[in-house]
Design a protein that fits this description.
Distance between the termini: 56 Å
Bound molecules: pyridoxal-5'-phosphate
Organism: Ruegeria denitrificans
Family: Belongs to the class-III pyridoxal-phosphate-dependent aminotransferase family.
Protein name: Omega-amino acid--pyruvate aminotransferase
Shape: globular
Keywords: Aminotransferase, Pyridoxal phosphate, Pyruvate, Transferase
Number of helices: 15
Cofactor: pyridoxal 5'-phosphate
CATH architecture of the largest domain: 3-Layer(aba) Sandwich
Number of strands: 15
Structural class: alpha/beta
Largest sheet: 7 strands, mixed
Order of helices and strands: HEEEHHHEHEHEHEHEHEEHHHEEHHEEEH
CATH class of the largest domain: Alpha Beta
Strand order of the largest sheet: 4-10-9-8-7-5-6
Strand content: 15-25%
């Protein structure tokens, strides 16, 4: 019996290895993979079990906006736990849920005023898709049910969210609802054919959407789901003008536009939401999670426009919106989100992100200038990606696809964590990062790049 005994380091390694199945675990590592154990955290830093300090380059998992170790978050959470830790959202509401719904509605663009709380990003996406399908059923057109997703898009790990995820879709044998989804090809301007302008690439990507709608039929398509920046796909920023033009096409075909802001929301690009403030669009539905609580507690939200709500409500006959979770509007998570927004406002974290973004992006772009093995660097706000150039004279293709891991390993030695994705490394540090900490981070990254470059005969 482990209760009451203080586990040793060895116990923890063994118990985690033997009993804990982590997300995206490789089958070859079942029962044998060991993960770095993080013990403590403060600001932008994490400490491992041996006491070594790291800069948290990935910001947890794109989520630790206000940084670690906030006493007032701990106080808020504990006070809410003692006052009202749980109430069924089927029967009741609570002060934190009502206040937070209002605070979110005040910060969303246009008429997006109705908030359905979820347990995280995947369930927010699931809810958005179910809302689109529900609306069409209510409107008497159940055949308008297909969702358009995009290659490299990531929307989560529930059956429906995974169905519309384009990332790794060819490599997985996980079952998906194939009849519900069609995908648009890669929108990454870096992958445009040689000699093609970015404007022409944008035209081609917009045409991809038009052609797919023409092929499938607008009367069969319920929604288009798109991250403003495809983050897990490698921080892919679509070409300028793409967002507005695709939204217009959706509107013209009565296809709901779902903007998945699970990463880009809550300050990552210096705004509460990026859809309108950065990309000039007011979608029909926005999904968010992660930065909503800065990762202190799990919470997501699906935010629906008045227009959509009205269409659902005013369709003939009564029905029930059979969607929701035991922990929808969890009062403790909602209290944490309110405090998170309060802190972000008091410290003007959005203004801070806007202020440090040029320096962050400048240091990122210097990496491309300094290292010939880099094919592309890209990002916006406090989001960045380094992609290794193809066609290098490395020992094998394998070394190319391991670039992200190699860079992460080199940086980890020097106290910086990154997130490797094949031939890319991505990062999204806590939003409170200061200019000198940005330098600390990129100085290590450059030292790591210098080491890794030696393995590649460019
Ligand atoms: N949508 C986007 C854009 C994401 O990046 C993620 C997670 O990384 C999700 C949805 C899924 O969120 P969660 O892991 O909280 O379910």
């Amino acid at each position: 019996n482990t209760l009451g005994n203080t586990p040793t380091d060895g116990d923890l390694v063994a118990w985690d290895r033997d009993h804990h199945l982590h997300p995206w675990a490789g089958t070859g590592g079942f029962g044998s993979d060991e993960y770095m154990r993080v013990n403590t955290a403060d600001g932008i830093y994490l400490w491992d079990a041996a006491g070594k300090r790291y800069i948290d380059g990935p910001g947890g998992m794109w989520c630790t906006q206000i940084g670690y170790g906030r006493q007032e978050m701990a106080d808020t959470i504990s006070q809410q736990v003692m006052k009202m830790p749980y109430a069924s959202p089927w029967s009741f509401t609570t002060e934190p849920a009502a206040v937070l719904a209002r605070m979110i509605a005040e910060r969303t663009p246009g008429d997006l005023n109705t908030v359905h709380f979820t347990t995280g990003g995947s369930t927010a996406v699931d809810t958005a898709l179910r809302t689109a399908l529900f609306m069409n059923k209510r409107l008497g057109r159940p055949e308008k049910r297909i969702v358009i997703g995009r290659e490299k898009g990531y929307h989560g790990s529930t059956f429906l969210a995974a169905t519309v995820t384009g990332k790794e879709r060819f490599e997985t044998s996980f079952e998906k609802a194939q009849d519900l989804v069609h995908f648009l090809p890669d929108v990454n301007p870096y992958h445009r054919p040689e000699g093609m302008s970015v404007d022409a690439w944008c035209d081609a990507k917009v045409a991809d959407l038009e052609n797919l709608i023409a092929d499938v039929g607008a009367d069969r398509i319920a929604a288009f789901i798109a991250e403003p920046i495809l983050c897990s796909g490698g921080v892919i920023v679509p070409p300028p003008g793409y967002h507005k033009r695709t939204l217009e096409i959706c509107r013209a075909n009565d296809i709901l536009y779902i903007s998945d802001e699970v990463v880009t929301g809550f300050g990552r690009l210096g705004h509460w939401f990026a859809s309108e403030d950065v990309f000039g669009i007011v979608p029909d539905i926005i999904t968010c999670a992660k930065g909503l609580t800065s990762g202190y507690l799990p919470l997501g939200a699906c935010i629906i426009s008045d227009t959509v709500m009205k269409r659902i409500a005013e369709a003939p006959g009564d029905d029930v919106f059979y969607n929701g979770y035991t922990y929808s509007g969890h009062p403790v998570s909602c209290a944490a989100a309110i405090k998170n927004i309060e802190i972000m406002e008091r410290e003007d974290i959005l203004g801070h992100v806007q202020c440090v973004t040029p320096h962050f992006q400048d240091r990122l772009h210097q990496i491309k200038e300094k290292f010939s093995i880099v094919g592309d660097v890209r990002g916006d706000g406090l989001l960045g990606c380094i992609e290794c150039r193809p066609g290098l004279n490395v020992e094998s293709y394998e070394a190319h696809v391991k670039f992200g891991q190699k860079l992460d390993d080199a940086c980890e030695e020097m106290g910086l964590l990154l997130r490797p994705f094949g031939n890319m490394a991505v990062f999204s540090p806590p939003l409170i990062i200061t200019p000198s900490q940005i330098d600390e981070m990129f100085d290590i990254m450059e030292a790591g790049m210098a080491q890794v470059s030696k393995d590649y005969d460019a």
